[in-house]
Design goal:
globular; Rossmann fold; 6 helices; single chain; alpha/beta
Length: about 170
């Protein structure tokens, strides 16, 4: 069984994330979507548990070969524990590649059996990021075209709770 891991902060999940996840699920027998807990980013809008739940509610029922998890350690270590042969990363632009390439080489050094698969994002999502979604939402813009419908209201509610909605 070919297992891939699709890591990210997913704060919050966007349609761009969902596109990469759904395409990865067509390539691999099983895809583990893992919310990486980054202790250097303490200002997440959603807790790791909340992000797992947002992802769970966003995955369409026809995608039945994925699971959702969270982890606070090294990605290469996590992949080894899960028996994953690949990490799937989405690239929006050339600027993403430099950082992701460095991460891929580091993961390969730590886990020589692990491959990184880069997937280019759909052209409709090239500009999309979680940060952009949060910023647009803070200014009251309609984010419904950028995030999965089942979680759109949750994101708006959280922005309002943080007192950042204008």
């Amino acid at each position: 069984m070919k297992i891939a891991v699709c890591p990210g902060s997913f704060d919050p999940i966007t349609n761009g994330h969902l596109d990469i996840i759904s395409r990865a699920c067509k390539l691999f027998d099983k895809v583990i979507i893992v919310v990486m807990v980054n202790y250097h980013k303490p200002n997440s809008y959603f807790t790791a548990s909340e992000r797992v739940e947002l992802i769970r509610r966003s995955i369409p029922p026809e995608i039945d070969n994925c699971e959702i998890d969270m982890y606070g350690g090294l990605l290469a270590e996590y992949c080894e524990k899960k028996g994953a042969c690949a990490v799937v990363k989405g690239l929006r632009a050339v600027s993403d590649f430099e950082y992701e390439f460095q991460q891929a080489l580091t993961n390969k050094h730590l886990n020589p059996e692990l491959e990184t698969v880069f997937m280019t994002t759909d052209q409709n999502n090239m500009f999309l990021s979680s940060s952009l979604v949060k910023q647009l939402c803070e200014f009251g813009a309609d984010i419904s075209g950028f995030v999965p419908a089942p979680v759109c209201e949750d994101i708006i509610k959280r922005i309002k709770e943080r007192g950042m909605y204008q």
